[in-house]
Amino acid sequence: xxxxxxxxxxxxxxxxxxxxxxxxxxxxxxxxxxxxxxxxxxxxxxxxxxxxxxxxxxxxxxxxxxxxxxxxxxxxxxxxxxxxxxxxxxxxxxxxxxxxxxxxxxxxxxxxxxxxxxxxxxxxxxxxxxxxxxxxxxxxxxxxxxxxxxxxxxxxxxxxxxx
Length: 163
What we know:
Layout: H1 37-53, E1 58-65, E2 74-82, E3 85-94, H2 95-98, H3 110-120, H4 131-153
Parallel strand pairs: 1-3
Antiparallel strand pairs: 2-3
Helix pairs in contact: 3-4
């Protein structure tokens, strides 16, 4: 039986290949009472940004994990695709690895954009080694760059650190 590369556990119900990964295993979630204003702000920013950088796809869900043993800072997965085009997706952010302070950064900070560019590029491919994923990173990064310039010129709240 093939083992999931994410967790090294057998994963027959997901019909994965040796090079595939799966994010279907139990992950410890952050207690909603422990969410901070910074976390809500990054989630709101991600929901605002995704349709603008990934051809109109909507971010249906942002989930906060609190699981340092999970091994991922974040994951991104499709919820709905039509004719190969992403319609809606989910973003999982692991507070247990990123740290609570990470969420106090300005949404257009290098650290936040580095993570979101990588995750949102999965709208184009789940395979990190594919040309489609590389093109997705370039496209999403370029679109974020344009958004940042427009947002700074309009003095939108995304350009400032959390208070």
